[in-house]
Amino acid sequence: MTLASKFKTILLSAACAVVGAVAAHAADLTVGANIGNVPWEFQDADGKAVGFEVDLVNEIGKRLGKSVEFVNTPFNGLFSAVQSGRINIGISSITITDKRLESVAFAQPYYDSDQSLTVAASSGIAGLKEMEAKVIGVDTGSTGDMWADKHKADYKFGEIRRFEGLSPAMLDLAAGRIDGYVSDIPALLYFVKDKPNLKVVERIPTGEKYSMMFKKGDPLAAEVNGVITTLKHEGFIAKLHETWFGAKAEEATSTVTVFDMPTPK
Fold first, then answer.
1. Contact 202, 127 (CB under 8 A)
2. Sign of the C-alpha dihedral, residues 242, 247, 253, 257?
């Protein structure tokens, strides 16, 4: 063997060792999340993923004895990623709907929500009735997107503009490129609390419930569902609510109450 051949062999062995080390440390659960979806999943000052659902998934992984890796995924891409098996779990304040249950599975819900309208405080807009001929922003493929599309004629929206997450939508709203933004009310209340230039002006009742999404037929869904039941009984999820929203969860909500796994109607 020549010196060059020996060098190549050493390099190949080193490369194989690195690949083996990476494989050995691969996470047991790959979790897709639209990072930037405050307060559910976003990055702190050090670039670490934090948030209500991040805490919840990490605790579930701990209870199952599985390591967790978060993969930043646009909201609309979570569905195909779960269905194809590229991720094991999808999170990002995902609403359980009958339509979605046709193609994916959900664990029991852990948060009740509605939609909302957020505007620039200086706009003078007080609600949906003043959005005629205005440009409204939504997250692509979200329940806010579905709601706006369904009610476009009712409120005579001028245009529905779609975004990949809250942050770019808020930039356009603050800059006056859109007139209002329809999305989940807990995320918007959390986002605008220290931003006097933005204001949540109307709650849009939709009766939504959030949960984690899985590939249809994946036994992991039932495993996670069982852990969520335990965490509700222990008060862990209610404590997360206090941590992230600064208020106690109401007893009748899905943050506290145990539910069966949702099934298609």
1. yes
2. positive
Looking at the domain that runs over 11-112+209-245, which CATH code has it been given? 3.40.190.10
| Beta-sheet pairing, 180-184 with 111-120 | antiparallel
| Residue pLDDT, tens place only, 9-29 | 444 444 444 444 433 347 999
Residue whose entry in the numeric block shows the structure tokens 């899985």? 214
The tokens describing 21, both together, are: 């080390």
User: Which strand (E) or helix (H) includes residue 180?
Assistant: strand 180-184
Residue of 148, 129, 128 lying closest to 138 (CA atoms): 148
Span(s) in the chain for CATH 3.40.190.10:
11-112+209-245, 113-207
Two tokens at 1?
């063997």
Residues 128 and 179 sit within 8 Å (Cβ to Cβ)? no
Q: Are 105 and 223 in contact (CB under 8 A)?
A: no
Give the pTM.
0.81
**Is the preceding peptide bond at 39 cis, omega within 30 degrees of 0?**
yes
Which two three-digit tokens encode residue 221?
């869904």
- Per DSSP bridges, beta strands 198-215 and 111-120 are antiparallel
The CA distance from 230 to 227, in Å, is 5
Instruction: For residue 188, give Cα distances in angstroms to 67, 119, 139, 217.
Output: 31, 11, 13, 33
| CATH code of the domain occupying 113-207 | 3.40.190.10
pLDDT tens digits for range 199-219? 999 999 999 999 999 999 999
